[in-house]
Amino acid sequence: MDVDSTHRRVYGRAKQGAEYGRFKGIRTLHPLLATICTPNSRPVIAAVRMRRGKAADSRGAPKFVAEVLATAVEAGCTGMRILRADSQFYNAGVIAACLRAGAHFSITTGMNPSIKRAVHAIPDRAWQQISYPTAVPDPTTGELISDAEVAEIPAYTAFASRKKSERVTARLIVRRVRDLAKPATVGEQGELFPVWRYHPFFTDQSAPTLQAEREHRHHAVVEQVIADSKAGAFAHLPSGHFHANAAWLTLWAMACNLLRATGALTSVFHTKATTATLRGHLVHVPARIARSARRITLHLPHNWPWQQAWTHLFDTVHDPPQPV
Q1: What is the mean pLDDT of residues 85-105?
Q2: pTM of this prediction?
């Protein structure tokens, strides 16, 4: 289960809840959403919540996480449940909600002073080198990153400044990559020692270090859902009323899940396709309905490449016609 928030720009000054938030000079609404996925399936949306533009990322997150975990159980999730989130959701309330529901957590922590002290205390021999299956661009320099190192602190106590009942001891896994943002210029001395950028996350799952780190990076799948939403019905928020836009957000989530189910029933290709592809292949189909002799005939395009997939979907969803 992945939790994240996004900002949706609005242009009408009369829209309720639209405020200047993270982006300077841009009025937005600030939805919160959660998805459920497995290693073999595309994510479906478990819950959504509309919020005003300048709401903090973690506002209402503990209650929202509790709802998501309950929804996952109702949806039939019987295996290991892991909640993944970025550093904006690293707080005692979110982790407590996971523990009450019997779920695991894997949450990015950021580099606060306590985390920095713990990371800098890791001995050099503890770092394990890994290679990315596919290189990813560095967010600062744009260069491709193909190597990194990972280390683990087996027992790190988070929220040590809070009362004893709110402290949590679990694993702190840290990934570091070379910091190439400020290379030496021509004629200047090169670096005397390597400079690293650290990406720690806090988790209580029992997987090996490298596997846990790889699974945590898959949290980025929720970003694909957000990008998918902005290419569809969530490209705009049509109403000036806050609750109407919240209903629009809910309807988009329902439509997205229905399209995901449609793709899963159609073919292996459509199971992993984006919603835009599903709409183009299965929904936006030019067809003509003809009625003759009490029979209804649906005329579909000739030499249509998705004929077998669409026919398989139709036969799966509809019962065979009953004899008259």
Answers
A1: 93
A2: 0.83
